[in-house]
Amino acid sequence: MKRLRTFIALAAVPLFLAACGNLSSSSMSSGSNTSKSGTQLTGQSTDTDYEGVIKSGHYQTSKSRGVTNTQDSGNTYNLKSFESGMQNVSKKVFSTKNYVFQEGQYLSTDTVQNWIDRKSKSNSTGLNPASNGSTSASKRNPIYIQAIEEQDYMTQKNNKLSLGGVTVGIAVNSVDYYKKEQYGATYETKIDKATGEAYAKKVANTVLQRMRKKSALKNVPIVIAIYRQASDDSLVGGNFLAYSTNKAGTTSVSSWTALDEKNYVFPIESGTSSPNSNDVSAFSNFKSQVENFFPNLSGVTAQARYSGKTLQGMHVNITTQFYSQTEIISFTQYLQTAAQKYLPSGVPIDITVSSTDGVQSFLARTATEKKFTSHVFNSY
Amino acid sequence: MKRLRTFIALAAVPLFLAACGNLSSSSMSSGSNTSKSGTQLTGQSTDTDYEGVIKSGHYQTSKSRGVTNTQDSGNTYNLKSFESGMQNVSKKVFSTKNYVFQEGQYLSTDTVQNWIDRKSKSNSTGLNPASNGSTSASKRNPIYIQAIEEQDYMTQKNNKLSLGGVTVGIAVNSVDYYKKEQYGATYETKIDKATGEAYAKKVANTVLQRMRKKSALKNVPIVIAIYRQASDDSLVGGNFLAYSTNKAGTTSVSSWTALDEKNYVFPIESGTSSPNSNDVSAFSNFKSQVENFFPNLSGVTAQARYSGKTLQGMHVNITTQFYSQTEIISFTQYLQTAAQKYLPSGVPIDITVSSTDGVQSFLARTATEKKFTSHVFNSY
Q: Which ipTM was obtained for this model?
């Protein structure tokens, strides 16, 4: 059995804090200060985004940047979904108004790598079960924990940033892909939701205890969020199952808040159902309008996110073989009208139009907007 | 000598005009009418874009869709630049307020293909010179005309669309790439600007005469625009050299309006100069701010368009090897601040951030806006 692991080792950026402004943009050293020393913030796109931390002109990258139990053919949706989802969970606890986002600075590459490895004689801190020697899909101990990621949330006081809280994401597999021999066939051990979630919750307690041993993390709130990875053949990423907010000093998780999030791919596969048939038919009407537009449009699909039975948003993908530039312009205008007419309102939606040459145009609408804004990628 | 030619043959869409509204959005059948018959318009993104024509639920694609003398390794920038540039030239004559855009319906695939071929015994209408038998780069007759494209501009009256004018783009090579034998090495015949332009202007007269022979085109204004293709190794497309507006009925071009447009790639190559050193240093400051942000940012370049010495706009491209999703979010916020601070104001600018996985985020600002809007491509 051979698993690939990706390390992107980075020189640890010294944690030196110099003058930095308040969160109000007037006094803040935001974005592109020419000063090469000191701390700056990235600037904020919208009120619902965190600003990020820049140190001495460089973005403060994570101390465990890029560490994960990478599958041979990973589902890239999981990566985006896990990281941006961790920020979304964090927003429930650390408001974007009062907190600044910093990539995790306390768990190092080595630490995280050891944690997501199997427990063994040489790796006493491994959070995945020791191998039981079996290579049978149903008898072996699978790799439950696929990734652990830290995000720091900073507060500002007297022109200094200090740690205000930490969020730790624990990503648990729904399918553990493994090989019996190097370069051999890939086998699968399925991990059902309840088993994976229970395992991750047990691990969460251990992680919390270990983090509390670091003096900087002793007295800050630590949010732990459990994410279930989608399988490699999924056209959408996984989702968060639960999170817990652990007050300063606590060393065991007292309670979990369940997150009833689920992702769907539209059009819905036959034999499966979605939480809301109105959304399905809205998308289906949109799709048939759009598919007729060109002689050779090849696909209209969407990722839809639900919380319970309520649609949270959609990412629509439209792919085709050939477009001329004027066709893209006209098509994008048409999409703007058709999307407003057919797609569900009141939720954020974006639409990406791609050809074999890459992204050609895109449209987006926030939850509160009525009209889609659009952009056609052009060239001089 | 072997040249590849691309035909994308399409069934000719019947030219049946049914009820269609006025240009005011209130009375217009815009975008996504469920009616499968009749004419609709695509809807308009902004006042400065033309609406397009939809017939019986399908986009009215060009009758000569995809015809061009395709080079073995064409410069894809030329294609986008030629087509959207033709629309820009057209806007000088046919206002977006009073005219609707329709892909060319009068020149067929066969017609255009014959015109852009060499003149020969079997092709009396060829607008490229007959072969003189030579394969020497300096002695052979090169292929001057690379592409000819038609765009139709429609007016609305009494709920009917009728042809209000036509724009014809003639794309002339700056370099003619040719092979002496099939699958052999590629050779180049350079065509200097004056020679190419003179040849294209001669061809323009012939094209005008031929178009006037079609009854539908006899009595409409015909704009002819001459485009000079960039070489295949260019990181930017070509540009329009001149255009002429030919009143209804005229059969020879009386006068040309020169267009002093030029494209540059930033950073400027050593040994070349740009029309405005302020823009060069603005970009250079932006670039160095941005390149320091990540440990492994790989490139910041831009396409800049000038009219005379005046900057018309910029397309900035930023590429890198690796980003996590939270890094993209922070980087995009940083770009928003840095771009506003450093990049030239008063012109449209967009910035595309790509990794090996494709486009990750993008930012845009119109000529009149101060702040950039941004979008990070995400996934559930």
A: 0.85
